[in-house]
Amino acid sequence: MIAVLFFAVYNSTVSGGLKYYDSRTSSLSALLLISYCIYYYCMQIIQPKDYFIYQEPSFWIITGIFIYCGGNFFLFTNYRDLCLQAEYMVKEGNKTTSDMLWSFAESIWIVADLLILLTNILFAKAILCTRNK
């Protein structure tokens, strides 16, 4: 996680700037979290418990993080390029294509919003699992 922090600072100050969304750092963070989630699932398969896994709050939290990061990974990866392409179209005088790209860029965040909603529902399920113990 410290490496991701250093990468984010380097990327925003030296190579990327702060004008657009930092796709590289977000993608790296999502990939790291996805890796941790897969590790958790593997450990649950290798060392099964005597009870059902869905009774554990950690399962619901990890599942929420996994769904959010997995669902948004390609959005995180490509959003900066989409914004740069839209800006390039404006400079080239192709306003119609630029408007379509900006409209698409805004509309794909609806997917991210829905994934946040699903993640929060799974976090609430984890809280309810804790209360029922």
From TrEMBL:
Keywords, alphabetical: Membrane, Transmembrane, Transmembrane helix
In terms of superkingdom, the source organism counts as Bacteria
For this protein, the parts annotated as crossing the membrane are 27-46, 58-79, 108-128
Is Membrane one of the keywords UniProt gives this record?
Answer: yes
UniProt protein name: Uncharacterized protein
Upper lineage: Bacteria, Pseudomonadati, Bacteroidota, Chitinophagia, Chitinophagales
